[in-house]
Write a structure and sequence with these properties.
Layout (H helix, E strand, L loop, with lengths): L12 H12 L3 E4 L4 E4 L14 E8 L16 E7 L5 H12 L6 E6 L2 H16 L4 E6 L20 H13 L4 H13 L1 E9 L17 E4 L10 E4 L3 H13 L14 E8 L5 H17 L3 E8 L8 E9 L4 H7 L15 H5 L24 H17 L4 H8 L7 H15 L8 H16 L1 H19 L8 H20 L9 H13 L6 H18 L23 H14 L7
Parallel strand pairs: 3-4, 3-5, 5-6, 10-11
Antiparallel strand pairs: 1-2, 2-4, 7-8, 7-12, 8-9, 10-12
Helix pairs in contact: 2-3, 4-5, 4-8, 6-7, 10-12, 10-18, 11-12, 11-18, 12-13, 13-14, 14-15, 15-16, 16-17, 16-18, 17-18
Length: about 600
């Protein structure tokens, strides 16, 4: 096997995949000799056995969760798997039909994806079972909208839009529909379904080191299937908006024989099918873009089904399937319950509940000091020094962004400097609202700014630090005296809060290793000591503390999960504190 493929072997990977499906879902039975998955309800002996039209489907493996994932009440009765991208043999298909068709007077409907191998092997199995006395019919599904002309080709390929057939017809027969009614519904669904896909790369077969095809830089394959084949055309790569626009244009183009005609006022259900290698965030971005663009066309999207529905191993791409709800009953059938494990059922509510008026309370955070009063206040000159310090931070910390990010990349996500700078930019916008003579109010706002703009761990830590310090200052009532002691007590309260909620202590290789030495320097200062001297001493202590983190073993934060030999530089959070204090120490604080 290829070193980065976590598969048993190219020979056993399909069998172990099926074993995994059966182990996960006790309601499913695996018949390993035929690679057959059956809903156990169809095999129960006695009066408890399920009796109704049974749906059977299958195909090559590598498309998981298709097809075994759609076996369950309200969808398929059985599925049969071939090897990777290979149709299952006729004997295995016949076994699936026999398993759910024996002594079943309602019959079996075999759903076949329109590929030559599947048509031949499933067709032969259907003929053999029919000759053996089993009531069985076959529907060939094709929902591909990539072909501008169908004549002279093998026809529209069966793609993930066929899963709409599984769900709607599965729910229909669960309610007692006949075999002929099920066939008629299949045909109507096929007429109202279209699928189009794009991919940025081909997939790799088990054991292979190279993909089946490559795509040029900045290009995408448009109109591809699910067997590693290239698309019908290439298009320029772009944003979700640009890519989705190109796909929907192809899906609905007037000169295409495989188009899906959509008109304003149409109601549709859509699938956004991850072909294997997109992140869930990418799929969500694409999904909302598909919905947005269909709505702009006047089409009402009433159901959305995103996810890996019918994949192509590790292909990096996606399909969009659109079902025009030409029959109002189809929506109810889509919403009908199913036990099939792979069906991506959305969270629904009754229509009446959705029409109820919602009352959302004011969600803005209450001011921390709203009930505390102003507390400790400063003179005009002292308030001017506070402003000078904050302006120094706003003007001076940006130059350290890259260096802090580089330090953080050793054991984190490399964004310490960028995250801190987000807070600095937000602070700059909030400066006009600060009452510089009321340091409690100032630190309260700084804490709110840190929590709302920085995000992540560092935003929470700075928010706790400044909020706790602000509360301490608000509780003070001294006027213009004992400044050093008051600020030291406030910073001590902030540090203790960080230790309490963050779970770290000095020596754990965190920002505390710079912050605590700085605090101790402040606590040792005299009340009549010059402010610049106090800040310089604090900056020196923080710098020395940050340097010591280079030799520390991490015992808190993300660095604890990184191998020790990879953590060689200073802690980014500690260095950030040291740089912050260095910036304050050089602020023009003599201005009145």
């Amino acid at each position: 096997m290829s070193g980065d493929q976590l598969l048993a072997s190219s020979e056993r990977c399909v069998d172990e995949m099926l074993e995994g499906v059966a182990a996960t879902n006790p309601g499913l039975l695996l018949v390993p000799e035929q690679r057959l998955i059956v809903d156990r309800r169809w095999l129960v002996s006695g009066p408890g056995r399920t009796r109704r039209v049974a749906l059977v489907c299958g195909g090559g493996s590598g498309h998981e969760p298709f097809c075994a994932g759609y076996v369950g009440g309200g969808m398929l009765a059985a599925s049969v798997a071939g090897h990777i991208f290979a149709s299952p043999p006729p004997a295995a298909v016949a076994a699936a039909i026999t398993a759910v068709g024996t002594d079943n007077p309602d019959g079996v409907l075999v759903i076949v994806f329109n590929y030559t191998g599947d048509r031949l092997n499933f067709g032969l199995a259907v003929e053999r079972c029919r000759a053996a006395g089993i009531k069985v019919d076959m529907y060939i599904s094709g929902d591909d909208s990539a072909l501008t002309q169908v004549e002279g080709t093998a026809g529209r390929r069966g793609l993930c839009g066929t899963i709409f057939v599984f769900k709607i017809v599965g729910a229909l027969v669960e309610r007692g529909a006949s075999l002929s009614e099920a066939m008629a519904t299949c045909r109507r669904l096929g007429e109202n379904t279209g699928t189009i896909g794009v991919a940025a790369s081909g997939c790799r077969l088990p054991g292979a080191t190279q993909p089946l095809f490559t795509v040029g830089e900045g290009r995408l394959e448009l109109g591809l299937g699910v067997h590693g084949e290239q698309g019908a055309a290439t298009i320029k790569a772009g944003s979700p908006r640009e890519v989705v626009r190109a796909m929907l244009t192809q899906l609905t183009r007037d000169d295409s024989a495989s188009r899906l005609a959509l008109a304003p006022g149409d109601k549709v259900a859509i699938m956004v099918n991850n072909l294997g290698c997109l992140t869930q965030m990418e799929v969500a971005n694409l999904t909302v873009e598909v919905v947005r663009q269909l709505c702009k066309r006047g089409v009402e999207v009433v159901r959305v089904y995103p996810g890996p529905l019918m994949t192509s191993l590790d292909m990096r791409g996606f399909h969009v399937s659109v079902l025009r709800l030409a029959d109002p009953s189809w929506l109810d059938l889509l919403d009908a319950p199913t036990t099939a494990p792979a069906w991506p059922a959305p969270y629904l509510m009754p229509e009446e509940a959705l029409k109820e008026e919602l009352r959302v309370p004011d969600l803005s955070p209450p001011p921390v000091l709203a009930k505390m009063g102003s507390g400790y206040t400063l003179s005009e000159a002292e308030g001017g020094r506070v402003r000078a310090c904050l302006e120094a931070v706003v003007d001076g910390m940006g130059k350290h962004e890259a260096a802090l990010n580089a330090l953080d990349s050793q054991c984190g996500d490399g964004d310490c400097g960028s995250t801190f700078l987000q807070g600095v930019k937000a602070l700059s916008k909030a400066m006009s609202s600060l009452h510089m003579r009321e340091p409690g109010q100032v630190l309260s706002v700084v804490g709110e700014v840190a929590g709302s703009s920085m995000g992540g761990c560092s935003g929470g830590i700075y928010s706790i630090l400044f909020t706790a310090a602000a509360a301490r200052l608000a509780a003070q009532h001294a006027q213009h005296t004992h400044h050093t002691r008051i600020w030291a007590e406030a910073l001590r309260a902030g540090v203790e809060a960080v230790k309490k909620y963050g779970g770290a202590a000095p020596g754990d290789r965190t920002m505390l290793d710079a912050l605590v030495p700085a605090l101790e320097g402040l606590e040792a200062a005299e009340d009549d000591q010059e402010l610049r001297t106090v800040l310089r001493n604090m900056a020196t202590a923080a710098d020395q503390g940050a340097k010591r983190t280079a030799g520390m073993k991490a015992r808190a934060g993300r660095a604890t999960y990184v191998r020790a030999e990879k953590v060689t530089g200073e802690d980014a959070g500690a260095r950030c504190v040291a740089l912050l204090l260095e910036t304050l120490a050089t602020a023009p604080i003599t201005a009145s």
